[in-house]
Amino acid sequence: MAIYPLGLRLAGRRVLVVGGGAVGTRRVKGLLSSDALVTVVSPVATAEIAELALTGQISWERREFVSGDTAGAWLVHTATGVAEVDALVTAECEDARILCVNASVAEDSTAWVPAVTRHDGLTVATFGNGDPRRSMALRDSIAALLEAGELAAQPTRGETISSLIGAPQEPGTVALVGGGPGHLGLITARGLALLKHADVVVADRLGPTALLDDLAPSALVINVGKLPDHHPIPQDEINRILVEQARLGRRVVRLKGGDPYVLGRGGEELDHCVENGVLVEVVPGITSAISVPAAAGIPVTHRGVATGFTVITGHEGVSSVGGGRDHTVVILMGVSKLSESAAALAAGVRGRECPVAIIEDGYGANQRVTIGNLGNIAQLAAEKEVRSPAVIVVGDVVLRSHFAPELLTAEIGLAN
User: Fold this and answer.
1) Number of H helices and number of E strands within the chain?
2) Which of 25, 72, 139, 372 is most buried, by CB atoms within 10 Å?
């Protein structure tokens, strides 16, 4: 028999069940799981139905079915076991154009109840063309595969994404997504969802670039990565690409390392898009200024050690930053001008003995930590051939690293 499969949302809607036996009880329990308002009409019923009525979960009218009982129902199940009664209920539903499940004669039903399994927010229904054992066998096979993880069942988009992490990105818009410091697990759920459904990804060389391997096959990746003192694609061109791709009606994700607004020129990209009539969403990311020190066991603030911190770009050298050793300085893009920055900070109240840590390739395969002080860090970095990307941390919080202070003192002369 030809059927049209349909999922019904019955929450808060009246459903009538005629018959209080074993079949009717199963129907009632299934309907309650859908938050339907259930009324049972039956002179006798199982103990389960009686308990549900006693606790107010359903309404039970202890009598025979009479004409007019179906009025106001969105759906009716009849399961009295008496063919004449079930036929009467079915006929009344037919006249009132109410969908009806007839447990006695499947061929007379205008709706069938499938065999159902649920898994991690999924509802799977199977129909056996009137053969309930066949549909149950198929349901059980699917349930076993879902439990074993052998069927693709991960949420991708639609209501799950909308309810948990916001609505899907609209075509013709740009999302500035902070990808975090590079670890695949440190991008936000919202950022990952947008990335998976992007039509175009404009990507830096830093951040979780391995995620680009899992994009939709049709997604276009435009690499605009920069190296220190080498910008093959200037910022103006990146801005132009974002607007151009959005105007083609595409979902554009600008994947940036760290956070878009922490020395990432995210503000410039947003301004250019807005000026050209392109809607922009900004998805914050975990900035390397905080996360990369954490990878080395260094907090940027710590009670009794440091009550504040400053994040500053070091690509032109740091001249001065207020505060002493109890005010942490985090320098991004500062390797090439490390000598000048260290000398400038040492000339202030911090002094040459102020601890310094350099964390290279934070969360990457080549992560390495070099620790010294403002007086010797430039020399140590040169000897160890420290390279970008690296985050430099200045202040007493460096002593909170998982590196033992006595080891630091003995090997590299952190203190006098």
Assistant:
1) 12, 17
2) 372
Q: Which of 109-118, 158-167, 242-251 has the lowest mean pLDDT?
A: 158-167
Catalogue the active-site residues. Answer: 204, 226
Domain residue extents for the chain: 14-113, 159-286, 290-412
| Topology given in CATH for the domain delimited by 290-412 | 3.30.950
pTM of the complete model: 0.59
Read off the tokens for 193.
């969802």
Summarised one tens digit per residue, pLDDT across range 83-94 is 999 999 999 999
Which carries the bigger pLDDT value, residue 412 or residue 388? 388
**Rounded to a whole number, what is the distance in angstroms from the first to the last CA of the chain?**
90
The CA distance from 57 to 112, in Å, is 24
Q: Which own/partner contact pairs does 246-249 have at CB distance under 8 Å and 24+ positions apart?
A: 246/172, 246/173, 246/174, 246/273, 246/278, 247/172, 247/278, 248/172, 249/171, 249/172
CATH topology (fold) of 159-286: Cobalt-precorrin-4 Transmethylase; domain 1 (3.40.1010)
| Range 14-113 has CATH code 3.40.50.2300 | no
Q: C-alpha 38: how far from its chain's center?
A: 36
Residue 78's contacts (CB-CB under 8 Å, 6 or more residues apart) are 17, 18, 19, 65, 85, 86, 89, 90, 100, 101, 102, 103, 104
Count CB-CB contacts under 10 A for residue 392: 27
Tokens of 212: 């680009």
Q: Tell me how far apart the alpha carbons of residues 166 and 278 are, in angstroms, rounded to a whole number.
A: 19
DSSP 306: B
Q: What is the pLDDT of residues 29-59, one digit of tens each?
A: 989 988 999 999 999 999 999 999 999 999 9
Contact predicate 269/176, CB 8 Å: yes
